[in-house]
Write a structure and sequence with these properties.
The protein is an alpha/beta fold. It has 2 domains: 198 residues, Medium-chain alcohol dehydrogenases, catalytic domain (Quinone Oxidoreductase, Chain A, domain 1), CATH 3.90.180.10; 139 residues, NAD(P)-binding Rossmann-like Domain (Rossmann fold, 3-Layer(aba) Sandwich). Strands 3, 5, 6, 9, 10, 17 and 18 form a 7-stranded mixed beta sheet that branches. A 6-stranded parallel beta sheet has the order 13-12-11-14-15-16, sandwiched between helices. It has a 5-stranded mixed beta barrel with strand order 1-2-7-8-4. Helix 8 links the parallel strand 14 and strand 15. The radius of gyration is 20 Å and the shape is globular. The structure holds zinc ion (ZN) (2 copies). The site of one zinc ion (ZN) has 6 residues, from loops.
């Protein structure tokens, strides 16, 4: 069938809105009518060449929710009409990580920037007959997509699909980093550097954990205002050494228990590290451009302060566990989802959506489909 898609064709170029041919699902695959897909910064990194993908053309988009239309004959537990969230790491179910329930560490994860389906073949082609890849094995910037069942989580139908899309990437990344990676405890102090899609969810994750000092740092005042609504107790508009000093001033000179680096790690990791108290945690949730090969932390500081620097992808827990858990927290009113969506767009306006993200206007832009 023909489906309209936003296609990455070249670094530095806007996404091309064009019809592509989408083949029917194979045995282990599912065809999904996309209802909502979030404008995450990761796709912008791809458009700019800061996060390299193996091919073009490729349909980007990895924060998607929709309704199943068709399933292959080897698909288990997913049926037409099901409401689903798509996971940006597939969770093959067979590797040593999946066997331990650690789908966020799946051995297939490095392949999500390659383009093909999980089975290595292509399901999309353009008007010239060329293979078209699918970012994160999802390709969510399209009216319809075909994905392996390994990328599909069935959810209850009471959750609006625009809110369900949020728990595909930004919300689990942020909330999980606080709850499952740093394991923030009641009474802890937290610093969040960069209050975008990930960072705002670290703020609300820290609040869920009972942190009593939650310092939100950004250089856009509007984001700091939003952060207060999500649970920040203090806000700091500063970067570099001024950021470190402001946090030390707020924490009796010792720094926070946990710092989260949610934007531009080359510029923010060291100030965040130095704003963290001895034996504390520094968690990196943000992407660094591929061109940056290292980030300096003076080794003697790392040794002497006994801090832990750690990465967190997908909130450091299987999305198969975390996504239903987050939706339960939404139902009880403990997790804010609707407040995360700043603006909605038609697919044809997706490049404007990314311009708005880049201009700091959006916490989360969301493309909605009929
Ligand atoms: Zn994302
Ligand atoms: Zn696996």
């Amino acid at each position: 069938m023909i489906t309209q898609a936003a296609v990455f064709r070249a670094v530095g170029a806007p996404l091309s809105i064009e019809p592509i041919t989408l083949d029917a699902p194979r045995a282990s695959e599912v065809q999904v009518k996309v209802k909502a897909v979030g404008l995450c910064r990761t796709d912008l990194h791809v458009m700019r060449g800061e996060r390299r993908v193996a091919m073009a053309p490729m349909v980007l988009g990895h924060e998607a929710a929709g309704i199943v239309e068709q399933v292959g004959n080897a698909v288990n537990g997913i049926a037409p009409g099901d409401h689903v969230v798509l996971t940006f790491i597939p969770g093959c179910g067979r590797c040593r990580w999946c066997a331990r329930g650690l789908h966020h560490l799946c051995a297939q994860a490095p392949r999500i920037t390659q383009g093909p389906q999980l089975d290595g073949s292509y399901r999309r082609s353009d008007a010239q007959g060329r293979d078209v890849g699918a970012f994160c094995m999802i390709g969510g910037f399209a009216e319809r997509t075909v994905v392996d069942q390994a990328s599909v989580i069935v959810i209850d139908k009471d959750v609006p699909l625009d809110l369900a899309a949020l728990v595909a990437c930004g919300v689990p990344a942020g909330v999980g980093a606080a709850r499952h990676r740093a394991k923030v405890k009641a009474g802890d102090s937290v610093l969040v550097v960069g209050c975008g899609g990930d960072g705002m969810n670290v703020v609300q994750g820290a609040r869920l954990c009972g942190a009593t000092t939650i310092i939100a740092a950004d250089v856009v005042d509007a984001k700091l205002d939003w952060a207060r609504g999500f649970g920040a107790t203090h806000t700091v508009n500063a970067r570099g050494e001024a950021l470190t000093k402001a946090v030390l001033d707020l924490t009796e000179g010792v720094g926070v228990n946990h710092a989260f680096v949610c934007i531009d790690p080359p510029a923010t990791l060291l100030p965040a590290f130095r704003a963290t108290q001895k034996a504390g945690n520094v968690v990196v949730t943000a992407i660094t451009p591929d061109t940056v090969k290292s980030i300096d932390i003076p080794p003697i500081e790392l040794f002497a302060t006994q801090k832990a620097v750690m990465g967190a992808v997908y909130g450091f827990i299987s999305p198969r566990l975390q996504i239903p858990e987050l939706l339960r927290l939404y139902r009880t009113g403990d997790l804010r989802l609707a407040e995360l969506i700043t603006r909605t767009y038609a697919l044809a306006d997706i490049n404007q959506g990314y311009a708005d993200l880049d201009a700091g206007k959006n916490l989360r832009g969301m493309v909605l489909f009929d």
